[in-house]
Design goal:
InterPro entries: ClpP/crotonase-like_dom_sf, Pept_S49_ser-pept_pro. It comes from Desulfosporosinus fructosivorans. This protein has a five-stranded parallel β-sheet with strand order 1-2-3-5-9, with helices on both faces. Strands 4-6 form a two-stranded parallel ribbon. Helix content is 57%, strand content 15%. The chain has helices at residues 3-17, 35-45, 64-73, 90-95, 128-144, 148-160, 164-189, 197-206, 217-223, 232-274, and strands spanning 20-25, 48-56, 76-83, 86-87, 100-103, 108-109, 115-117, 125-127, 227-229. The protein is an alpha/beta fold. α7 (164-189) runs antiparallel to α8 (197-206).
């Protein structure tokens, strides 16, 4: 799909939704680097009645969604998020700051329990709740053991590896996630149904054992979120737009891979020349 076709789909989506459409499509973690480009786009649009954000993201930093919501709402009266396929973790947090979320048959949100870098293996992200489940498991192992002294002797080395400062930081991250969820739901998504806020917050931050759990549009609606189901032409346009950006990213990946291979050949040639 060429750029003109993607632009045509965005324009048609704007007509169907009577809105201005922004697209955030990424496979890298959502973080504050989005803010300046987003601000530039919003300045170009100017203040408008309604903004739709087409969102594809697997999540990222715990603070960024709140900043994104606050920034977008400086430029519109109504704000909606359109999820063609995936808006997980921090991206699901962003959804809580919208007036509605537009979802299709394959769209999914996810739990908003935050991810942190593994204390040893820095390239690995782990859910903060994994630390608490580990502590709970060790505690139950000691209490339920037929010989608590032996069990305690076995698990003590594991407990010694848990840095108390790190645990404290993880605890703050969980509380921050809960705080942001409550604020966004109270001010926006559930402002007319405040009684649901505590339960929705608790469910999204603590209620799922898998960080990748798929929350489809029916479950999101049952949970209490304001879900607009995309059907007919609306969904066709949203899905075609998603496929167009997915194709674009695959092309960029191939280009990057080809560039890398070319540089490897170049370095290899230099090595042969030197020798």
């Amino acid at each position: 799909m060429n750029p003109e076709e993607r632009v045509n789909l965005i324009e048609r989506l704007e007509q169907l939704r009577n809105s201005k459409v922004l697209v955030y499509f990424s496979y890298t973690p959502l973080d504050d680097t989005i803010l300046v480009p987003l601000y530039k786009q919003l300045k170009d649009i100017g203040h408008t009645k309604k903004i739709d954000l087409v969102l594809h993201s697997y999540g990222g930093a715990v603070d960024t969604p709140y900043k994104v919501v606050t920034l977008i709402r400086e430029f519109c009266d109504e704000f909606s998020v359109i999820v063609p396929f995936v808006a997980k973790s921090a991206a699901s947090m962003l959804v809580l700051g919208a007036d509605e979320v537009v979802m299709g048959p394959i769209s999914e949100l996810g739990p908003i329990d935050p991810l942190v870098k593994h204390p040893v293996y820095k390239d690995i992200l782990v859910p903060v709740q994994a630390v608490w489940h580990c502590l709970d498991y060790l505690q139950r192992s000691i209490i339920n053991s037929s010989d608590p002294e032996i069990t305690s002797f076995m698990v003590t080395p594991l407990l010694d590896k848990l840095d108390p400062w790190l645990i404290g930081d993880y605890e703050k991250t969980i509380k921050a996630s809960q705080q942001y969820a409550e604020m966004l739901l109270t001010r926006y998504m559930l402002k007319n149904d405040l009684g649901r806020v505590p339960n929705v917050t608790r469910t999204l931050t603590e209620g799922y054992f898998s960080h990748g759990y798929p929350i489809g549009r029916r479950e999101a609606k049952d949970l209490g979120l304001k879900v607009t189901e995309a059907n007919g032409e609306l969904w066709d346009v949203i899905w075609k737009l998603y496929l167009g950006y997915e194709e674009l990213f695959k092309e960029k990946e191939k280009e990057a891979e080809a560039t890398y291979k070319a540089s490897e050949v170049y370095r290899s040639t230099l090595k042969e020349t030197c020798f």
